[in-house]
Write a structure and sequence with these properties.
Arc Repressor Mutant, subunit A, Beta-Lactamase, 5-stranded antiparallel β-sheet, alpha+beta, 2 domains
């Protein structure tokens, strides 16, 4: 690929990332764009991304072909291979010729060669000491990545990491906001319930709250649920 189209494709990818930092987006679509970009601009034939789930286990998230998906599944099944090693060590791993791969990778190597894949490189998706996944690059011929290609691969891995962590931060923020809104709603219902009990029992607001809270403690029900029942007139104290 000539320099100009290659550089334009890379710039477009980083521009896509910039858009995700201000707009809602699909993280899987972003990662798919990244692996497709890797195939376009690097001297490789297929690419994929695996991410760690909540239990720390890798899962295939994006791939440019069925072959790249199967390559990642092979490593997951064998619990061996460049991607698995990168995830464990947090360091890039190169396997220029899978036919000469370490003996510990035998199951992976046999499957890869059967798929017609001869080289594999893995780059960690890492923030400081935390590895959240791997960017995986595959070739149908033996060979190593050039220094420029390796730098671009690392940049793409950084892009993926930023996008993923940004999405997670947004999701966590939405959860916090939802929890806050529920808390605000519950507080409003409790205030209404205090007013109802104060009126019915002819007691102060403070005493009304004590009555409501005492009932919640005695029954083991959430305070907000007791308050809602009082407001709905399904519970009389």
């Amino acid at each position: 690929m000539t320099g100009t189209p290659r550089e334009a494709r890379i710039v477009d990818t980083f521009a896509t990332l910039a858009d995700t930092l201000v707009d809602s987006y699909d993280v899987v679509e972003l990662l798919q764009t990244l692996v497709e970009t890797c195939v376009d601009v690097l001297d490789i034939d297929a690419a994929g991304i695996m991410l760690a789930n909540a239990w720390g286990e890798l899962e295939v998230i994006a791939s440019t072909s069925e072959t790249s998906r199967l390559m990642e599944v092979l490593q997951l099944d064998a619990e061996a291979g460049p991607c698995m090693t990168t995830f464990t060590t947090g360091q890039p791993v190169a396997c220029p010729d899978i036919a000469d791969a370490p003996a510990a990778w035998a199951a992976f190597s046999a499957g890869a060669l059967a798929l017609g894949v001869r080289s594999a490189h893995a780059v960690p998706l890492r923030l400081r000491a935390t590895v959240i996944g791997t960017l995986n690059l595959f070739g149908t011929a033996p060979g190593t990545l050039s220094d420029p290609d390796l730098r671009i691969a690392r940049a793409m891995a950084d892009v993926a990491t930023i996008g993923i962590l940004h999405e997670r931060t947004l999701r966590e923020h939405e959860v916090v906001q939802a929890q806050l809104q529920r808390a605000i709603g519950s507080r409003e219902v409790i205030e209404q319930a205090k007013g109802v009990v104060s009126h019915v029992r002819s007691v102060s607001i403070e005493d009304a709250f004590g009555i409501i809270r005492a009932h919640a403690v005695a029954t083991g029900e959430p305070l907000s649920d007791v308050a809602q029942a009082i407001v709905n007139r399904s519970l009389r104290l």
